[in-house]
Amino acid sequence: MPWIDSGSSPAARWGRYQGSAASPYRVCVDLSGPAYRCSCPSRKIPCKHADWLLKLRKVEPAAEPDWVRAWLDERAARAVRRAEPKERDEEAAARRRERRAERVAGGVAELDGWLTDQVRRGLGTFERGGSSAFAAVAARMVDAQAPGLAAGLRRAGEIAGRGRDWPGRVLEELGMLHLLVSAHGRLDSLPEGLAQTVRTRLGYTVDTAGVLASGERVADRWIVLGVIDQVDERLITRRVWLRGQDTGRPALILSFAPPGAPLDDSLVPGTAVTATLAFYPGARAMRAIISERGELKPAPQPPGEAVTTALAAFADALADDPWLDRWPVVLHDVVPTRTDSWSLVDTSGDALPLRPYANPWPLLAVSAGAPLTVAGEWSAAGLLPLSCWDGERPVRL
Amino acid sequence: MKEWEALVSAALLGTARRPLDLSELPESVRGLVNGGDPERMLLSAAALLTGYRRAGRLPERDVTLLSRAPEDPRPVVGPDAAYRLAMLLFGERGNLLAEWLRTVHARGLRVPPERLPVLADAARGRPELRPLVAEAAGPRGPWLAALMPDWAFLAERSADPEVWTHGTTNQRHAWLTDLRTPDPDAARAALAEVWPSEPAPVRVQFLGALHTQLSTSDEEFLEAALDDRARDVRRLAAGLLAALPGSALSERMATRLRALISIRRRTLVVHLPAACDDAMRRDGVNPTPPRGVGERAWWFGQLVSTAPLSVWTGLGHPADELVRMPVEGCDRRLLILGWSAAADREQNAEWVRALLDGDTGLALDQVARLISALPRDQWATAVRPFLQDQLPTALVQALPAPWPADLGNLVLDRIASGGARGLAHVADIAAYAVPPECLDHALTRQVLEHDAAPWRRRLVDTLAFRRGMHEELP
């Protein structure tokens, strides 16, 4: 075992690695980033030692040694310095904000005209696929710094001309884009939360420091419901769904990494973390970052709900944020089954379909026809199961 | 929802072609979209209806439930072993999957069920894994196979007599093999019942099941099969009868052979058979030699390998003397090969030792076959003389794994002391072939130098990996 004195605390994981060098390297990972430090000469960040450290399976909880503490303190201090506003920056930032608002407004106006044109000419023109037409407008929305609009257009472009019910699904996407366009025109008169939701959906980002400083803070014991990695060409997006044990509140932690780089693996189904979350602003705030992280412990099965209860909660959330496209559900005593497609049935016979491309087999093999608790992401396309419980054993699907 | 359908067709056609008619819309929606140009009104109505449709979505009803698989009482392996399985499935050590599955089964444990689909897919491409995965799946196997035809092999183990009459050929074969061990007579009787109506390839496959628990009660059935219309069935039946000590066929072979051999002045004198008559053919002698082999020598070789070895010792000399005797009338190698086959079939330790000691010029893989015919506690002694400066890769490779522990330690000791050719090859084989008892060998506790040979690192890594694997499965 080349590792000496490895250990972990809620904030960090560390160890000394005895490689070929005379003295061992000191390796430390700040889990809040995650951020990496290693005394090896490698320029790659994270270096292989930090990578291995994260992949070590047995790391005992321990008190942070001085060298780890010192580095964590140094990082915290740097973060505070960065967060301190400077007047000159303030002015420049205000100018940048103004310039961006103008460009977004230009983009929104252009999209409004384009949408109107499509409806006038008829969606039938997309019969033979329309992804290139959509991609061209999407690219102009990216130029206008409204990536949220671009994403909606690309989604519509992927649907157009494919499958039996494509016209309806494209019209849904275009309708929701139109709703965003008209909401942009009334941004000033919208309630603060909804205005934030609209800004987020347009593609405005809120920086982490701002969320930490002024976001809504909720302390709870957060049960991990499920984890899913979405792999795109240049980026892996990890979605971790949490639910507060006392508040019952859903929360979504996003993390990003280029393919091949490690993501924080500590939050897995079957665990719960005592933490204070800071929520991004919005009418139905769900995305959050972990502000103060406490103990991570194994957690029992989360209590689930019946299908109708889950759908009612989703409807309630849609009333706050009509663009909401993913909603975490925990269903108890459901059985996977197949009629026309795969679905989950609860004890009263109510069923939710699985998403068409979801792999049903691991869930089926665990269930073998018996009821179990399943956590997943509900969307208009169906349910994507993320985890289930085999008795008390949590299973990541 | 017909309002939505109407809106979709309006959008498909385009407002330029047909004036927009929103009178169908519900009151609440109409009130919100009135005013503005028709295109924006249509889009607003679409957004509103989308919201209503998403929020008001009802659960599906009247779905059919699947049947429930019987309970599997075996406990699931622990989290460390479950993690190890993921490494075997998605990492680089897939060749240890079979050993892992066998160990899990031997411990009375089961695999985490969520891994069964991946395991079943892996077994589709690796048939040797199929029985192991079926075993691991337990009662879930047939349940999953009913949903996914690609995994039919998960349903092959069933004691249900329906399977014998209505199953697929593979399922029926598995049923027959499963029955043969506990009740050999019932298995033969089941086979006899369907025998006349099965096609030839199926008869061959099923007849092979009689290899296990072969006894004199099978003789009548097999003797009848010697007159089968298919050649492959006849040959297989002859092979089985030859393997049956004291069978009429092996008596007939013995009689034929006895007439051809004798000892004169401490020399083995052989007369090659003059013809291959119908009776010989019926007893499974293949009349057509391969290219380059004389036909009389070819027939004689078959007699030597199928007749009982007692014919030879009946000449009045023990095996070790016979093996060393000069031979007249045929090539000595013909006898050596025939004796080897017979000694392997009879698991005759006296003949095996005589052939191993007798300067017979056998190839290493044939030596390995002979050694594996010995009782396992004699393997190490038999292999020891071969572990010289040039390690016998072909021999080590052909010995069935897992080896007996003393053989494992012997080979690892030889590797540890080094200074031989072929170390890398033998180490790569031994890493997987030594049994679990050898995984703690002193070799694994040596600290490797930075410039240690890659094969040495591979050996130590593999042994350590396997040790971890077995420790996690108590």
Q: What topology does this entry show?
A:
The complex is a heterodimer of chains A (397) and B (474).
Chain A: E1 3-8, E2 12-17, E3 25-30, E4 35-38, H1 48-55, H2 66-83, H3 87-121, H4 131-143, H5 147-159, H6 166-185, H7 192-202, H8 208-214, E5 216-231, E6 236-244, E7 250-257, E8 271-279, E9 288-298, H9 307-320, E10 327-338, E11 342-345, E12 351-353, H10 361-367, E13 372-379, E14 382-390, E15 393-396
Helix pairs in contact in A: 3-4, 3-6, 4-5, 5-6
Chain B: H1 2-13, H2 27-33, H3 38-55, H4 79-90, H5 97-106, H6 116-125, H7 130-137, H8 140-147, H9 161-166, H10 169-180, H11 184-194, H12 200-207, H13 219-225, H14 231-242, H15 248-258, E1 261-264, E2 267-270, H16 278-282, H17 295-306, H18 310-313, H19 319-324, E3 327-328, H20 332-346, H21 349-357, H22 364-372, H23 379-383, H24 393-398, H25 405-417, H26 423-433, H27 454-471
Parallel strand pairs in B: 2-3
Antiparallel strand pairs in B: 1-2
Helix pairs in contact in B: 1-3, 2-3, 5-7, 6-7, 10-11, 12-14, 13-14, 15-17, 17-20, 20-21, 20-22, 25-26, 26-27
Written overview of the protein:
The complex is a heterodimer of chains A (397) and B (474). Chain A has helices spanning 48-55, 66-83, 87-121, 131-143, 147-159, 166-185, 192-202, 208-214, 307-320, 361-367; strands at 3-8, 12-17, 25-30, 35-38, 216-231, 236-244, 250-257, 271-279, 288-298, 327-338, 342-345, 351-353, 372-379, 382-390, 393-396. With 397 residues, chain A is of the alpha+beta class. In chain A, helix 3 packs antiparallel against helix 4, helix 3 crosses helix 6 (166-185) and helix 5 packs antiparallel against helix 6. The longest helix of chain A is centred in the first third of the chain and has 35 residues, at 87-121. Chain A is globular. The mean pLDDT of chain A is 89. By secondary structure, chain B is mainly α. Chain B is built from 27 helices and three strands. A three-stranded mixed sheet of chain B has the order 1-2-3, with no helix packed on it. The mean pLDDT of chain B is 91. At the A-B interface, helix 3, helix 6, helix 9, strand 10 and strand 12 of A face helix 1, helix 3, helix 6 and helix 8 of B.
